[in-house]
């Protein structure tokens, strides 16, 4: 009896509080208690299973939204609104998994069901109660992807007159979709984002057309500056369904990733309309249908989908500064996205405005080609060595060591997803502190050269900057050494005043002679595409895309808890935004595709907590 009493550490609920239990027991007991309380519809009993300081991140299962409930009150509110409808059941440790415990936190992969779907998730317990809960939708019941035992036959055994081959069926589909038969979904933008969501929708049998103004899949990478290689390593970059082979380089050169995307588009049987530009789109609230006007091979085609996904790129709408004298400048000038590469600038004078990724890559390539290069840095930049980022920032989830120790891409994505945005910076700050210590001499040398450094507003480093503002950093693959040793000249803490016919004048009066000016000044919010293609009104109705509302530089509050407008319902019915880096595109395309499939099948999808709009761009 005494022993049993000692095992009770806190609270009142014997079934969840025995701290000397094995992690599996702890998690199973909690899941049993959760299952019972949810099935009984007893919201208070469910809420009692959560810590005061708790997070429940739901990817589409309860909320038909991407939403994090922070604290018991938000959990309570959500359950009151959604529990009866969701009908969750069968909560257990995921098949084949075992729970673990480190530093008093027990954790496990979990599985469960709702009335319409199967779910997978992750649970962390602290002191016997739920600290973090991730619930994600894996598949819709009755609409599973055709995999494993359900894979397509391919061949049609038997004998049949006028049988069609796979090729003939593909050709027939390509000929009719968009003409005699309307797609359910149109994706504007056939970069990696449009391709990934297109592949998911294909597997879910959602008739879809991808509209891309470039000729070939992969061109959005091919057309970027010559020296570009992916900044993220291969383990982070896989596409859905078809991972890169084991001999794929760590950092894909841009043309190689372009070829992979082209191959992928073909083998995944996507209806990809290259050389096709979307000109206009409008939504009819009555028929709940889009009219999408596209120009294909010089001819106008009108598409009538129910859903419109803008996958036009979050790094695609150039922020072009306006400086006095740009109209009289006699040299070449362009935004970084238009930069052709360094070849014609040997022995020329180049001024690159900006100090983030593109600016560094372009400066280094120009220097290698023999140009005289000056970088103009207006404000601080976060710089992190690629090696350090890989070893200290990514290795536990995305690296060869992670693969060797059994980590899969799907699990790595879900572990990442299980860390609530509200506290993600707390996990990131120690990583960047360690990087700062390890690379202290390197940072000193950069500062000595005049480079203005930061580590994020709260020292949480690169990934938080990416999530919050999508800019303000350089993953150093070599250019910083050129800045430190003066090979790339630097003017920092300063802005451009104006251009003359042959030079750039800075605000301190310095004149930089220039044959080339590159504006590496970043990109604007994706709702700018909605303004271009649909209307200003709709762009304002959905508001700013990206950012968390962290109230840090370029990510104004209030706190949103999730990335604005990405992969989830927006204020405009039938309008969706998809994109981000390869990791996000892979991971979130699963949840966007399930939201679209459910709508196509007429499964009710009441959205809980549709985000409000606080910023227009
Ligand atoms: C220099 C640079 C380096 C990057 N490095 C990495 C990296 O290492 N790893 C990583 O994961 N991410 C990286 N990114 C970020 C991001 O992953 C890429 O920008 C990626 O290309 C985004 O894919 P996307 O499909 O969302 O957009 P995009 O590749 O920009 O594709 C959007 C497509 O939409 C098309 N489009 C736009 N408007 C229309 C229209 N009206 N009609 C038809 N088509 C239209 C465009 O032609 C384009 O092909 C980098 C970005 C940049 C700019």
Structural summary, described in words:
With 617 residues, the chain is α/β, with parallel strands linked by helices. Helices cover 32% and strands 22% of the residues. Strands 1, 2, 3, 4, 5, 6 and 7 form a seven-stranded mixed β-sheet that branches. A five-stranded parallel β-sheet has the order 10-9-8-14-25, with helices on one face. A five-stranded parallel β-sheet has the order 15-24-16-17-20, with helices on one face. Helix 9 (357-368) links the parallel strand 16 and strand 17. Helix 17 runs antiparallel to helix 18. The longest helix has 19 residues, at 582-600. Residues 1-19 have low confidence and may be disordered. Bound molecules: flavin-adenine dinucleotide.
Number of strands: 25
Computed over alpha carbons, the radius of gyration is 26 Å
Spans where pLDDT lies below 50 across 5 or more residues: 1-19
Q: Give the helix level as a range of percent.
A: 25-40%
Give the overall form.
globular
Overview features:
seven-stranded mixed β-sheet, five-stranded parallel β-sheet, 19 helices, disordered N terminus
Give the gist of this structure.
This protein is α/β, with parallel strands linked by helices. Helices cover 32% and strands 22% of the residues.
Topology:
Layout: H1 2-7, H2 23-39, H3 43-48, E1 50-59, E2 66-70, H4 71-86, E3 89-93, E4 100-102, E5 105-113, E6 117-126, E7 129-140, H5 166-176, E8 185-188, H6 192-203, E9 208-211, H7 219-222, H8 254-267, E10 272-273, E11 276-284, E12 289-296, E13 299-303, E14 307-310, E15 332-335, E16 349-353, H9 357-368, E17 372-377, E18 382-385, H10 386-394, H11 400-404, H12 409-418, H13 421-438, H14 440-448, H15 461-468, E19 473-476, H16 479-484, E20 489-492, E21 496-499, E22 503-506, E23 511-513, E24 516-519, H17 527-533, H18 536-542, E25 575-577, H19 582-600
Parallel strand pairs: 1-7, 8-9, 8-14, 9-10, 14-25, 15-24, 16-17, 16-24, 17-20, 18-19
Antiparallel strand pairs: 1-2, 3-5, 4-5, 5-6, 6-7, 11-12, 12-13, 21-22, 22-23
Helix pairs in contact: 6-19, 10-13, 13-15, 17-18
Bound molecules: flavin-adenine dinucleotide.
């Amino acid at each position: 009896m005494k022993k049993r009493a000692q095992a009770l550490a806190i609270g009142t609920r014997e079934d969840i509080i025995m701290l000397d239990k094995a992690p599996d027991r702890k998690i199973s007991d909690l899941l049993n208690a959760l299952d019972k309380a949810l099935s009984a519809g007893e919201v208070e009993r469910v809420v009692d299973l959560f810590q005061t300081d708790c997070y429940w991140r739901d990817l589409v299962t309860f909320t038909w939204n991407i939403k994090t409930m922070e604290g018991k009150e938000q959990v309570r509110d959500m359950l009151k609104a959604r529990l009866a409808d969701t009908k969750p059941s069968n909560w257990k440790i995921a098949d084949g998994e075992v729970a673990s415990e480190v530093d008093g936190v027990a954790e496990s992969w979990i599985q469960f069901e709702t009335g319409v779907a199967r779910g997978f998730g992750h649970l962390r317990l602290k002191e016997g109660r739920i600290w973090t809960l991730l619930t994600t939708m894996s598949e819709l019941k009755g609409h599973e992807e055709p995999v494993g035992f359900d894979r397509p036959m391919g061949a049609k055994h038997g004998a049949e007159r006028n049988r069609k081959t796979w090729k003939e069926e593909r050709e027939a589909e390509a000929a009719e979709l968009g003409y005699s038969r309307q797609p359910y979904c149109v994706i504007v933008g056939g970069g990696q984002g449009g391709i990934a969501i297109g592949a998911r929708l294909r597997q879910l049998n959602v008739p879809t057309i991808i509209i891309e103004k470039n000729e070939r899949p992969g061109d959005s990478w091919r057309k970027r500056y010559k020296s570009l290689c992916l900044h993220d390593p291969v383990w982070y970059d896989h596409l859905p369904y078809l991972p890169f082979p084991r001999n794929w380089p760590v950092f894909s050169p841009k043309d190689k990733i372009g070829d992979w995307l082209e191959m992928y588009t073909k083998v995944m049987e996507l209806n990809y309309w290259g050389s096709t530009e979307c000109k206009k789109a409008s939504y009819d609230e009555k028929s709940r249908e889009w009219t999408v006007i596209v120009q294909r091979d010089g001819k106008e085609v009108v598409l009538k989908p129910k859903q419109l996904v803008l996958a036009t790129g979050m790094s695609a709408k150039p922020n072009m500064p306006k400086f006095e004298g740009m109209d009289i400048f006699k040299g070449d000038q362009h935004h970084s996205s238009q930069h052709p590469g360094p070849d014609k600038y040997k022995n020329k004078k180049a001024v690159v405005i900006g100090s983030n990724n593109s600016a560094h890559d372009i400066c280094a390539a120009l220097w290698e080609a023999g140009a005289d290069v000056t970088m103009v840095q207006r404000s601080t930049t976060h710089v992190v060595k690629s090696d350090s980022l890989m070893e200290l920032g990514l290795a536990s989830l995305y690296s060869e060591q992670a693969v060797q120790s059994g980590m899969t891409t799907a699990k790595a994505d879900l572990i990442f997803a299980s860390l609530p945005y509200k506290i993600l910076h707390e996990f990131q700050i120690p990583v960047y502190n360690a990087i700062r210590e390890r690379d202290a001499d390197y940072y000193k040398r950069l500062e000595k050269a005049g480079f203005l450094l930061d580590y994020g507003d709260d020292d949480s480093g690169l990934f938080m900057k990416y999530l919050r503002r999508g800019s303000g950093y350089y993953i150093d693959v070599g250019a910083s050494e050129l800045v430190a040793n003066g090979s790339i000249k630097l003017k920092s803490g300063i802005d451009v005043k104006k251009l003359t016919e042959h030079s750039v004048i800075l605000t301190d009066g310095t004149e930089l002679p220039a044959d080339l000016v590159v504006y590496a000044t970043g990109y604007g919010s994706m709702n700018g595409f909605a303004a271009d293609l649909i209307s200003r009104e709709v762009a304002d109705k959905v508001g700013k895309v990206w950012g968390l509302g962290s109230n840090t530089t370029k990510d104004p509050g209030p706190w949103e808890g999730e990335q604005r407008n990405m992969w989830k319902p927006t204020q405009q019915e039938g309008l969706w935004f998809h994109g981000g880096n390869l990791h996000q595109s892979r991971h979130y395309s699963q949840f966007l595709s399930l939201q679209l499939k459910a709508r196509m099948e007429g499964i009710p999808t009441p959205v809980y907590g549709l985000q409000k709009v606080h910023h227009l761009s």
